[in-house]
Design brief:
With 304 residues, this protein is mostly beta strands. Helices cover 7% and strands 54% of the residues. Strands 2-3-4-5-6-7-8-9-10-11-12-13 form a twelve-stranded antiparallel beta barrel. β9 and β10 form a beta hairpin. The longest helix has 17 residues. The radius of gyration is 19 Å and the shape is globular. The two termini are 37 Å apart. 39% of the residues are buried.
């Protein structure tokens, strides 16, 4: 059950970003989302392009990115069945590598094929050795399209998830799932000034175990103030719902300050973002897909 207070908090987080649009001077023509195409690669066929044309989502816990977050909330716990008051570290390592882009007719537009890989791991900071709890491994092939402010991403990807050895040794009662699946994801996005909305879904196949959901609905809204010098405020709310949980949504909210470090040659900047994070709903962590969790925390996210 989603608590109304969490939804209000998520909406408030986005509202802060809306308010900031009136106070931040938008002095740069740099794309708000950080995606951008180098002028020398803007037209024609480009092998191994340096950048992306589909902006990564802000609040999706499974978006390929590198980050470290400190989270406190309600998680599954062996020592405390309620899981309340648990502190974990959530760590991600992810990146996208461009294979080929057919650019045009304008810079930042075209179609592109990438390969993307990411690892998401969670560590129990209440354990003496900060036990690894769960690790999710993803690899995929995103095919993206962009024209003006409209963009789409179709991704075929594989995920496998594993419990940590120290966590498994805690008790014989812990049951490990041989969890893996393939999925096809479609996400469509529209940018309108500081606002971005997106929606789509996934179809999972070759699921193991069979209890995994087969269908997923995905939507979200984001706000970026535009850069005043190297900084901008960003915020987003991401919603996912599956048939496994009778379409009860998982809500992820993030808001923070993004700093861009410009590189030579007008290439897209390196990004570092300090985020306030909250989540409530079915767990995004593979081995615990049947559990409900909630947390509040802070994280550092890196655009490499």
């Amino acid at each position: 059950m989603i608590r109304p207070g969490l939804v209000v908090t998520a909406i408030t987080m986005v509202g802060l970003a809306v308010f900031a649009t009136h106070s931040a001077a938008q002095t740069s023509n740099a794309p708000r989302c950080g995606a951008g195409v180098h002028e020398s690669q803007s037209l024609g066929v480009v092998g191994f392009p340096d950048d992306q044309i589909f902006c990564p989502t802000i609040a999706d816990p499974k978006e390929a990115r590198s980050f470290v977050s400190l989270l406190r909330g309600t998680f599954r716990s062996l020592d405390d069945p309620s899981g309340e008051g648990t502190t974990i570290a959530s760590v991600g390592l992810g990146d996208s590598f461009g294979l080929v882009r057919w650019g045009g007719p304008e810079p930042n537009e075209g179609v592109q094929l990438d390969v993307v890989g990411s690892i998401f791991a969670q560590f129990d900071l209440g354990a003496p050795s900060n036990d690894l709890i769960n690790a999710d491994y993803l690899i995929g092939l995103p095919f993206t399209f962009r024209r003006n402010g409209f963009s789409t991403r179709v991704t075929l990807y594989h995920q496998s998830s594993h419990l940590g050895d120290e966590y498994l040794l805690r008790s014989d009662d812990i049951q490990r799932e041989n969890l893996s699946f393939e999925s096809i994801e479609l996400l469509a996005s529209q940018e309108m000034g500081p606002l971005r909305v997106y929606a789509g879904g996934e179809r999972l196949f070759r699921r193991e175990p069979d209890a995994l959901p087969s269908k997923l609905f995905h939507a979200g809204v984001e706000l970026r103030t535009g850069r005043a010098g190297p900084f901008q405020l960003v915020g987003g709310v991401d919603l996912k719902a599956t048939d496994l949980h009778d379409w009860s949504p998982a809500i992820s909210g993030r808001v923070g300050l993004e700093m861009a470090r410009r590189r030579s040659g007008d290439h897209p900047p390196r990004l570092v973002t300090l985020m306030l994070e909250l989540y409530e709903g079915p767990s995004p962590y593979g081995q615990f897909f049947q559990d409900d969790i909630s947390y509040l925390g802070v994280g550092l996210h890196f655009g490499l």
